[in-house]
Amino acid sequence: MGKLKIGAIASGSGSNFEAIVNACETGILKDKATVKVLICNKVGAYCMERAKNHNIPYVLIESDKHRGTREEFDQKMIEVLKKYGGELIVLVGYMRYISEMFLDHFKGNIMNIHPALLPSFKGMHAHEDTLAYGVKVSGVTVHFVDIHEDHGPIIIQKCVPVYDTDTKETLGPRVLKWEHKVFPKAIELFCDGRLHIDGRIVRIDGEVKL
């Protein structure tokens, strides 16, 4: 059985993208998966430089210039992902909703990472919302994607402490360090066939060690 073919979609820096690439090249995914292509929707986003540095094909599909429907935009992404044989799609800081058509095309095999413990603090300002609420624990969530924002079945979560002195600038990097470990682990579980979705519950065969 060949390696799982991953298609990545990003809007920004792409540090989670690079963490997955590194896991495929030299880490826990070395014999299990390979990143075939990166799609980016933002001009100048650093994720494309990361792809270039790893000799991974990347395609810019500008969302700012798109004047059609969300489905028409997503169809452009589908065509690219089909070209490269994408089997698992990872959203690595992709700042747009995806359509039901896109979800259906990939049969739900789409993962996202969120820098908080879902279902708390959804959306783009997770660290600010976490600090404003005063919780003592934040964390990382990797989940399968559904039609709702930061909502699909949860695969892995990792708790990260929140300190009284924290700001977005101190909490963010501490959470990000775990994002880089947790996302490749979730992909490994997928590769190994250990994930079973039961409604909105993801049941995992065996113990998960991070």
Structural summary, described in words:
The protein has 210 residues and is of the alpha/beta class. The chain folds into 2 domains: 1-107, Formyl transferase, N-terminal domain (Rossmann fold), CATH 3.40.50; 114-141 and 155-210, Rossmann fold, CATH 3.40.50.170. The chain has helices at 15-26, 47-53, 70-83, 100-105, 126-133, 168-191, and strands at residues 4-10, 33-40, 58-60, 88-91, 110-114, 137-144, 154-161, 195-198, 201-204. The strands form 2 sheets. Strands 3-2-1-4-5-6-7 form a 7-stranded mixed sheet, sandwiched between helices. Helix 2 links the parallel strand 2 and strand 3. The mean pLDDT is 96.
Straight-line N-to-C gap: 26 Å
- H and E string: EHEHEHEHEHEEHEE
CATH fold name of the largest domain, please?
Rossmann fold
Q: Structural class, from secondary structure content?
A: alpha/beta
Name of the CATH first level of the largest domain = Alpha Beta
Tell me the domain tally: 2
- CATH superfamily membership of the largest domain, which one? Formyl transferase, N-terminal domain
Overall outline: globular
Largest sheet: 7 strands, mixed
- The unreliable regions are none
User: Mean pLDDT score, rounded?
Assistant: 96
